[in-house]
Amino acid sequence: MTRLKAIESSGSARRSLVFAAIAAALWMPVLAEAGPQLQPWVGASEAIDPDPLADTPEEMGFSNSAARMWYCGAQVSCAVTDGPIRAVFQRQFDLPLLSHPQRIGSIQILADDYFSLYVNDKLVGYDWLDRRYLGGADVPTAVSYDLNEFIADLNFGGANTITIFTCDGHPPNPLVTPGSSTSGGFDGCVSPTLRANHWLLVDGSILESENGGSGPYVGAASLASGEGVGWQASTPLPEPPSLALVGLALSGLLWRRRGASVRYAPVEQMKAPG
């Protein structure tokens, strides 16, 4: 009877391993598609104040209205070393639909160290701070995107959303392109690592005028980063453990139980005395 029980334990462990492998094969694509799971957005109270860094926004190509931001929870302000090493920022705005519009605009952006920029869930671009010291300059230069590079993704006559994924770390070699939609916003940041600082700077605007530009600007969206201008921030939650890892852990436990039944309860020791 004891030997039969040991054989049944071995069979159970093997069956559990098979079931775990099947479940992992079915569910891993779903987990991968889900992407980073985010906490609900909170009001942007994450402006870094006072600014302790030597390079001013103006020196990097921003207007004096742009301020460094990072996510630091409920803090009113935070230092460039506070908060998580990954953060997500979002800005929502409306644009009117005009009969004969003239539209101009641009977005300037820079992050310490990585950003990926999305307009209405479509990737516009990404880069790393380490790559922005152009020509050996001492001060990094902002990345600028002209309106023509993302105008097709804008919703005139309705709501629009800009989403920016950021992380602290070193650029991989070769570079990794983030996903085409926001579900892959962190894909370009392969190994987030705490470095000296982390922050985000955004600037720019989208302007619309009627009558081919001869009329006043009746539609405008300011995109400058900072407090009180509509930016919101969050930090990504840890990814849930995959079913593959859970299955392997469960199978490992069952395998150890099977080994224990054979090792500590051999048939010879279970015989009745005499």
Order of helices and strands: HEEEEEEEEEEH
> Over all CA atoms, what is the radius of gyration?
27 Å
Strand order of the largest sheet: 1-10-2-7-4-5
Helix content: 10-25%
Number of strands: 10
Return the structural class. alpha+beta
Residue stretches low in confidence (pLDDT < 50, at least 5 long) are: 1-10, 23-35, 240-251, 253-274
- Count the DSSP helices: 2
Task: Please state the overall shape, judged from the principal axes of the Cα atoms.
Answer: globular
Mean pLDDT: 76
Largest sheet: 6 strands, antiparallel
- How much of the sequence lies in strands comes to 25-35%
Distance between the termini: 19 Å
Question: Can you lay out the helices and strands and say which pair or pack?
Answer:
Layout: H1 2-34, E1 42-43, E2 86-95, E3 102-112, E4 114-119, E5 122-128, E6 143-146, E7 158-167, E8 199-209, E9 217-222, E10 231-234, H2 243-264
Antiparallel strand pairs: 1-10, 2-7, 2-10, 3-6, 3-8, 4-5, 4-7, 8-9
Description:
With 274 residues, the chain is an alpha+beta fold. The chain has helices spanning 2-34, 243-264; strands at 42-43, 86-95, 102-112, 114-119, 122-128, 143-146, 158-167, 199-209, 217-222, 231-234. The strands form 2 sheets. Strands 1-10-2-7-4-5 form a 6-stranded antiparallel β-sheet, with no helix packed on it. A hairpin with a 7-residue loop joins strand 8 and strand 9 (217-222). Helix 1 runs antiparallel to helix 2 (243-264). The longest helix has 33 residues, at 2-34. It is globular, with a radius of gyration of 27 Å.
Question: What key phrases describe this protein's structure?
Answer:
disordered C terminus, 2 helices, 274 residues, alpha+beta, 6-stranded antiparallel sheet, disordered N terminus, 4-stranded antiparallel sheet
